[in-house]
Amino acid sequence: MSKVTCDMAVSLDGFTAGPNQSLDKPFGEGEDGRLTRWMTEEPEAHAEVLESITAAGAFIMGRNMFGPSRGDWDLEWTGWWGDEPPYHAPVFVLTHHEREPVEMKGGTTFTFVTEGIEAALAQAREAAGDAAVAIAGGAHTVNQYLAAGAIDELRLHVAPVVLGAGERLFEGVGDVDLEPVGKPWGTDLVTHLTYRVNR
Amino acid sequence: MSKVTCDMAVSLDGFTAGPNQSLDKPFGEGEDGRLTRWMTEEPEAHAEVLESITAAGAFIMGRNMFGPSRGDWDLEWTGWWGDEPPYHAPVFVLTHHEREPVEMKGGTTFTFVTEGIEAALAQAREAAGDAAVAIAGGAHTVNQYLAAGAIDELRLHVAPVVLGAGERLFEGVGDVDLEPVGKPWGTDLVTHLTYRVNR
């Protein structure tokens, strides 16, 4: 069965985004691109990490990671991710509002799942085949899958940043049994930590 | 002037202790020794880190790190740390209740400071001479010194543990400018991360 992975860019105090995420500030207030500077400023140094993030055969994300709107769909909106999203694979979006799939350039299809996290995972597993399923975020979605014991490998990319408020990883996940995998490493902009989640 | 250092054993979700710290559970509920297993089970692997923790010329700690009592002093109590505490140096204890200094075996003297964090730091600097001053904890004390911009080097020892509640590092410290120092490293029980705090 597919391995379920999760990569999260996170502040040293455990936030994956600041408060009040919006169209202008998808990572919330106070973040100012600091959680992902390593991706934009040092892509070569982290090439292997960046590849592994998008290597999955299918992705799952919360609705807030798909777009800033809430409630009924704004059908003009096709995500933060531009015409050709970086996923190049099926992406399952958790939502309470039904919507027809949206096909993007480059092989990314957004499929909207209203039946909950287990249903989304089952669909993603089927779409991924032998490849991994990645829980793409945000924190609320990751926390739900962690609490359900559904994530096999958690890869944290810790920026030397203190956000102080926002979306917090690990909130309400219970007692998760983690085991470091490989060696931690990093640059001035990020430290990469990988954990196996034992069941 | 003395460098001000701070070593903190911390869970992956940012707690330095679980909730409801008490005489029986100095690290609070749910911690069960898991934040400091690396110290007790792998002292050789981390010998250099352990030495650097106690290398300072003077230490500052919050009252809750000195003992479980609150309010007026129980004068029978001389700390969690046994007859010969591991500090072997002057230790300044932040408190609102005056008390005469307590001299322990091995060179540790607990001096009780009621005039606040700046006064304690001034006394510790004087006692330390050219050696470092270490902010020993707990989280509340460290957060006060971080918010005051008084810590030069923060050394986090991150256990692969999710506590979910308790005393949280970085709470209310504002926007701290951190810069990784050296390379992160660790074992299955802990990851060591060092940061310079820029002013």
From TrEMBL, chains A, B:
Organism: Actinomadura fibrosa
SUPFAM superfamilies membership: Dihydrofolate reductase-like
Domain Bacterial bifunctional deaminase-reductase C-terminal: 3-176
InterPro entries referenced in this protein's UniProt entry, alphabetically: DHFR-like_dom_sf (IPR024072), RibDG_C (IPR002734), Riboflavin_Biosynth_HTPR (IPR050765)
Transmembrane segments: none
UniProt xrefs under Pfam families: RibD_C
Domain of life: Bacteria
Identification of the protein by name: Dihydrofolate reductase family protein
